[in-house]
């Protein structure tokens, strides 16, 4: 049964009982939470991220976490915990694992960019064998390595509650990725997974082949991030072959790979037949004009499902960019396009300026804005994009909660 919202008082008493000095940042957050009139009915996420750029805060330590979880043990109205960018180690992971085994209300846990290693990953993954409440876990940036990732792969074979898992930048390797792909052939609950930036020692694309095989049979995965997988055209072809039979995936992130126009040709053919994919991220590849034309042809005549396309930094010149601009005039379903980092010419600037000024392309749905110098139109960069809030969330109260979700909230699970 949940106690009345009086988190700060319980925290002060717990610090005294455990002879632990108060962390002023935690105390302040709990005081603010106590002022929330709806805390006991709607639940709340405690935002204790240590990367506050406006006001430097003392980062949460393992000892701080021990006191905090003793307070939250009976606070069922706390449904989310953001501990990103702190200094938690494997000792803190042990504390959190115990809390997850005993807690039945926490739905969101963000541990990104702490100092948790392989043994900490084993403890947290082990706790999720029994936990039936957590639906969103972010481990991003903790160097759990391949063995730590294997523990999460084993967890996915057992856990049927978790819906969103972020293992990006965790230094996982080939064995882990293959094990996760195999686990997801049977797992029916996971909707989104981030596997960006693994450490791969091979150029044979075995991981892509296994992930493609998984996509043939998986019917629950909605969002898949495969950035920095050293993927080439061969791997893209395998993924496209699998996605012809897949009717669930809506967000595909292939950013920062080695995809050229030949690989995009397979994606173009896929878009002509696929009626599910809504977001395609090709940021930082090398599709060039030929690849852009392949995409524009598929989107012009065939596809009416894709809503978001990112082709940032792909060595595309005016020919390819103008083709995509013309496509947007006829394909009204395509609402977001990100093009910065390519080679703009005069025609590109004019075409995208017209799209923006007529309202066809809203300023919040692209990463460029037109401006004039001596009567000539140019494009300036806006800080928008699919990865805008991948590593940080806006703290300003005027920013809508959905703005922190890089996938436009196509997966309903979030920290809010």
TrEMBL record:
PROSITE patterns: LRR (PS51450)
Sorted UniProt keywords: Repeat
Record has Repeat as a keyword: yes
Name the UniProt record assigns to this protein: LRC34 protein
